[in-house]
Amino acid sequence: MTIPSTTLNNGVEMPLLGIGVYAPRQIDEVRPAIEWALEAGCRLIDTAAAYGNEREVADAIRSSGIPRSDIFITTKVWNDDQGYNRTLRAFNRSLERLGLDVVDLYLIHWPIKQYRHETWKALEKIYTDGRARAIGVSNHYPAHLDELLTEAYITPAVNQFEFSPYCYLPDVLDYCRHKNIQHEGYAPLVRGQKQNDPKLVVLAEKYGKSTYQLLIRWSLQHGAVTIPKSVKPERVQENFDVLNFSISDEDMALMNTFYDNTRVADDPRGIQ
């Protein structure tokens, strides 16, 4: 199975479907989950310093035997490490834990007001020094990006934010498309909270897929890089078995109406 990719605004190719490794119950679940995902065709792994599992990501990649150049690795600078010099030091620590000289994508995890510009300047240096193939942000909504772009020399390549039919904000997607920033959706499965939503169940039965697969497919059809998380082998496999069907325009429009602001993380609209 070959997973399609998208071309970022700097020409770098990024897979559209990958695995997120946020906060599994036990750290020892990370390595096997990634190994199962790689076996299923995954070539995008999304981690972060705050997840505390960058070393486990490195171990899984090393044991897979897959060439490093074939795997797209994202990590992020955490809030406590933001600011110019602190970000540079945090990036060095992430590289050491990942066993890498270059990361594919480095993101600002959250928009911390007093450090936004200094942190982005550090990411621009990391990028111009050739130590990250692309740089971007996470959990940034239009107001945060408008502020960032007043001083940025480089437009973020990616904006990663929570994305499912239940927290679907078309204005955020439209903003990213207008600025040529690739949108990436985390928590597409809403951590199972909507697994049995009757509206979703009816549609899943129509397509002969699970509700989880339908949520992933919805995200992909919005053009979002999508990073579902699971640590169960059968679920990991299922998450990547979503390329053999399409949701109709009518059903996509219907799912777009499911919004009820259900979230698993903080709402960035509350961050000034």
UniProtKB/TrEMBL annotation:
SUPFAM superfamilies named among the record's database cross-references: NAD(P)-linked oxidoreductase
Any Pfam family the entry gives: Aldo_ket_red
Matching InterPro entries: AKR, NAD(P)_OxRdtase_dom_sf, NADP_OxRdtase_dom
Taxonomic superkingdom: Bacteria
UniProt KW keywords: NADP, Oxidoreductase
Record bears the keyword Chaperone: no
UniProt entry tagged with the keyword Amino-acid biosynthesis: no
Coiled-coil residue spans: none
NADP-dependent oxidoreductase domain location: 28-257
Family statement drawn from the similarity comment of this UniProt entry: Belongs to the aldo/keto reductase family.
Protein name: Aldo/keto reductase
Organism this protein belongs to: Spirosoma flavum
Top-level taxonomy: Bacteria, Pseudomonadati, Bacteroidota, Cytophagia, Cytophagales
